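ok new one. same drill as before - structure tokens go in, u give me an amino acid for every spot. 179 of them this time. try not to just spam alanines like last time pls lmao
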């Protein structure tokens, strides 16, 4: 699949079929994540793949009831927990780059999942402490997000995006890009 096609097809999937996801597919997604860029190539990201129903329930319990992705955490056959080690990145001008490093790895994962016909959904509105306990992650690691992973039951229409001229300028702030 062309990268552009994967970018166009990707959606946040919140309805899943129960079909299992073969481990070799999951490993291909982790491999895509492994190749992401990071601050000084420190690769602060870590992943925990969860299939156990009891652990999935513990993780889902950490999502507030008004989180639209909460049910997907119980429905999907696999959960992917994204963690990062802040010490394996940098803080520069007050900006915490471990969040960016981890996000890049996760986006590689997410786009590779599209190619495998699998759905994902970033779930960050969730208690990091609850997720940490569910997977037994050590204190020094931050829980960044969780994603369900599985075959989509329903693919939603694209959500709206800002227009190009609202997000990008030519040479200086506010000057439109030439067509
Ligand atoms: C950092 C981040 C955190 C998110 N957290 C949640 C979440 O907790 N629950 C949820 O249902 N969706 C969550 N989302 C998904 C967004 O709502 C979704 O990406 C956005 O509405 C655009 O829709 P699309 O991904 O289908 O294009 C999150 C996305 C990102 C990037």
């Amino acid at each position: 699949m062309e990268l552009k096609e994967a970018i166009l097809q990707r959606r946040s999937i919140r309805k899943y079929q129960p079909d299992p996801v073969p481990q070799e597919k999951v490993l291909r997604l982790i491999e895509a994540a492994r190749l992401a860029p990071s601050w000084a190539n420190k690769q602060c990201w870590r992943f925990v793949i969860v299939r156990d129903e009891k652990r999935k329930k513990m993780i889902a319990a950490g999502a507030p009831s008004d989180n639209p992705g909460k049910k997907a955490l119980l429905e999907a056959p696999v959960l992917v927990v994204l963690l990062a080690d802040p010490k394996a990145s940098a803080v520069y001008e007050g900006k915490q780059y471990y969040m960016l490093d981890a996000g890049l790895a996760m986006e590689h994962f997410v786009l590779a999942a599209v190619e495998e016909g699998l759905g994902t959904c970033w779930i960050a509105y969730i208690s990091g402490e609850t997720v940490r306990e569910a997977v037994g992650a050590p204190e020094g690691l931050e829980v960044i997000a969780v994603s369900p992973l599985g075959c989509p039951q329903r693919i939603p229409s694209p959500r709206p995006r800002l227009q190009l001229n609202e997000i990008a300028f030519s040479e200086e702030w506010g000057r439109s890009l030439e067509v």
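The CA atoms of residues 119 and 152 lie 5 Å apart. and btw The mean pLDDT is 97.
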